[in-house]
Amino acid sequence: MAGLLLSGPRLGDGVKVNGWTSDWSIGADSANPYIRARVARFGLLALRKEKAVYFTAARDSDGNRLNDKCIYRVSGGEMPGEWWSITLYDGDSRLPMNDDGALSFDATKAADTGTPENWSFRVSPQQNGHPGEVWVSSRNADQFDLTLRLYLPDDALLARPETALKPPVIDELFCEEGAA
């Protein structure tokens, strides 16, 4: 599973915060040839970390691999950046092949819910939750990752990511039998 460049062996400047991982050599002049090849392979717009940082999670809060046979609640609060988004990618680091039009959640949607400092959304293969609940589709994703992008990150995040970032929590709500 790819994890939008961030899974596999550490090839650069690895950062881990509560199950979310990043590699801050992405977009840096000092990135080694392996990082550059991964960026080219997956088509990531690799901005310098002063412009954007990328964190990926492939497991829920219990350590189980994210899977389209399960339903999750992703929740969090204010993020240390000017703007942020969370996007779902399948095991090949692509958007899942579906026409649901619901593959990401961002700061704008958090503000629209009226609680940018306390937001949540559901990840599931079908939109059959509660009315008004924000949904991100995992249909046809198989095992998947969530990528958190923080644009124009705060200086504190760049200096001390382990203390400055309170990453989203991914809780499993339900899984079909045999999904794990």
UniProtKB/TrEMBL annotation:
InterPro entries: DUF1214, DUF1214_C_sf. Gene3D superfamilies: Domain of unknown function DUF1214, C-terminal domain. Residues 52-154 form the DUF1214 domain. Pfam families: DUF1214 (PF06742). It comes from the Bacteria. PANTHER family: BLL3101 PROTEIN. This is DUF1214 domain-containing protein. It comes from Henriciella marina.
